[in-house]
Design goal:
Helix 1 packs antiparallel against helix 2, helix 5 runs antiparallel to helix 6 and helix 10 packs across helix 13. This protein has a three-stranded antiparallel sheet. The protein is mainly alpha-helical and 310 residues long.
């Protein structure tokens, strides 16, 4: 974990460090409060970097909301979430006042309500419609459209984390066996399967999309950005957020929603819980069990809407 004021700092790190000093020197907070805020800001900084944020302007409302939502899913106490919300709002207001951000991105931020909030899950119909729309655009042969279809097919088929997707190299793909070798949390490798639709999308992208995007900066990266370098996580976040913005549902609208959706659909289809745990790369079965609650909730909703005696 990178701490505030650690080495190799970039513009975002420098801004957060300056805000932490502002709290110590100008606001008159107690030492304990400053220590707690610094811990919150370190966690926010780590989260922001994991989402591809590099400059103060990258700290937007969606990122702050997702950071707080992640904390609520981790079971943080109500008081801790309220303090984190205050730290984020204070940082956003300070960035705006200092001219480091165009607007106060935390003005509309609210701490998430504590409690067992279930992850966002798309229906099978929503996923089919989303993929059909991407396939229609990819049929025109545009390299970015071909790439985007392959990205969504792979995220959904293999239930990947976004960092696992962007870290894929060409050598990690086994088209014959329909598997990917991915590096997950803790640098742990696992092999995950994908289906024929994802194979077809990947094949089209590799034949017609990637060669058009490739440059001397591409290296062995599987997915490339518009300038030929390895695709960044922030680009994937923007893509998925755009695709999900008009679909009903609550919870963060990022790539993790497709991971949640894949896991839930696997369990709905009768997959073994331990097999899903292995596919997702969860160290603990308890982490995977949240999807059994999602499936139960979906069953309850279907029952209430369909059974005449519900």
């Amino acid at each position: 974990m990178r701490g505030i004021g650690s080495g190799n700092a970039g513009p975002l790190d420098d801004a957060v460090t300056a805000f932490a000093r502002h709290l110590e020197g100008e606001r008159g907070y107690s030492a304990n409060t400053v220590r707690a805020y610094r811990s919150d800001l370190t966690d926010l900084l780590d989260f922001a970097h994991s989402r591809g944020a590099a400059v103060p302007g990258d700290i937007d409302l969606d990122l702050l909301r997702e950071w707080l939502w992640r904390g609520s899913q981790a079971g943080l106490a109500k008081a801790t979430l309220a303090r984190r919300s205050a730290a984020a709002k204070g940082l956003a207001a300070w960035l705006s006042r200092e001219g480091l951000a165009d607007a106060d991105q935390g003005a509309r931020l609210r701490a998430p309500r504590p409690g067992p909030t279930l992850p966002r899950v798309l229906t099978e119909g929503q996923m089919s419609g989303l993929l059909a729309g991407l396939a229609d655009r990819a049929a025109q042969g545009d390299p970015i459209a071909l790439r985007d279809l392959a990205i969504v097919e792979v995220l959904y088929a293999a239930a990947l984390r976004v960092s696992e997707l962007t870290g894929l190299d060409l050598t990690h793909l086994d088209e014959e066996r329909l598997t990917l070798r991915v590096t997950g949390k803790g640098a742990k490798e696992r092999v995950v399967p994908f289906g024929v639709p994802a194979q077809r999308a990947l094949g089209d992208y590799l034949r017609r999309g990637r060669p058009a995007l490739a440059s001397e900066r591409s290296g062995s990266a599987l997915f490339l950005g518009s300038r030929g370098a390895r695709l960044g996580t922030r680009t994937v976040y923007a893509l998925i957020a755009r695709l999900l913005e008009d679909l009903p549902g609550s919870g963060p609208a990022g790539p993790h929603a497709l991971r949640h959706t894949a896991a839930t659909h696997l369990l709905d289809g009768g997959a073994d819980l331990r097999a899903v745990q292995e596919m997702l790369g969860h160290a603990s079965l308890g982490t995977t069990q949240i999807y059994t609650h999602v499936s139960t909730d979906r069953l309850r909703q279907s029952y209430r809407s369909a059974h005449p005696r519900a």
